[in-house]
Design goal:
- The protein folds into two domains: about 60 residues, Helix Hairpins, CATH 1.10.287; about 100 residues, 3-Layer(bab) Sandwich (minor pseudopilin epsh fold), CATH 3.55.40.
- By secondary structure, the chain is an alpha+beta fold.
- The protein contains eight helices and three strands, in the order αααααβββααα.
- A hairpin with a 2-residue loop joins strand 1 and strand 2.
- It has a three-stranded antiparallel beta sheet.
């Protein structure tokens, strides 16, 4: 079975004015679609065909000859996770279990916000900022390019923020810190983080 571009959890204009419909048309409609198309071409007729996206990522991560497969498979997964990490009327301080754990593991929401913002702002070039669960504790991570915490044993992604330029350039140009601030204040989907925590 070939992979399909997963549906967005909202309309393409739902995140405006913070992330424009134009950005979604390019980022989701072109970039995310290209990763899906490329992945299908790369695995067609191979022993990876018919495996789950997570299985393909795990196998390809351990084999440097499959770097192209890894990059496209991980980017399909990362982007799908990113769309769900945002919602219309999102943002602000979390509630529920994730709020309790942020206070416990970072000291306060403001300290988490600082750590997450720094991870996103200091990821040189393209990449991702993550909130993950590792050994029962919350941590902030950053990964370059297509890298994903999925490849680390026992690490469970709860949220991600895309800091590739195409995620924000049409709306924020080179002002990555402004995009990061807007992501946290207006877009982040804490319900999704709480659901991933509950499923962990």
């Amino acid at each position: 079975m070939a992979f399909d571009l997963p549906s967005l959890p909202y309309e393409r204009n739902a995140l405006a004015p913070h992330i424009s419909e134009e950005t979604l048309n390019f980022h989701y409609g072109k970039h995310h679609q290209a990763y899906v198309t490329n992945l299908n071409k790369l695995i067609e007729g191979s022993d990876l065909e018919g495996k789950s996206l997570e299985e393909i990522i795990s196998i390809a991560a351990a084999d440097s000859s499959k770097a192209g497969v890894f990059n496209n498979a991980a980017q399909v997964w990362n982007h799908t996770f990113y769309w769900h990490s945002m919602k219309a009327d999102g943002g602000g301080a979390p509630t529920g279990k994730v709020a309790e754990m942020i206070d416990r593991d970072f000291g306060s929401y403001d300290k988490f916000k600082e750590a997450f913002s720094t991870a996103g702002a200091t990821q040189f070039g393209s990449g991702w900022a993550w909130l993950v669960l590792n050994g029962g504790k919350l941590e902030v991570r950053k990964t370059p390019n297509a890298e994903t915490p999925l490849t680390e044993d026992g690490v469970i992604p709860l949220l991600t923020m895309d800091v590739w330029e195409h995620a924000y350039y049409l709306d924020y140009q080179n002002a990555r810190p402004k995009y990061i601030e807007t992501f946290l204040d207006e877009l982040v989907n804490w319900d999704f983080a709480n659901q991933n925590l509950a499923d962990a």
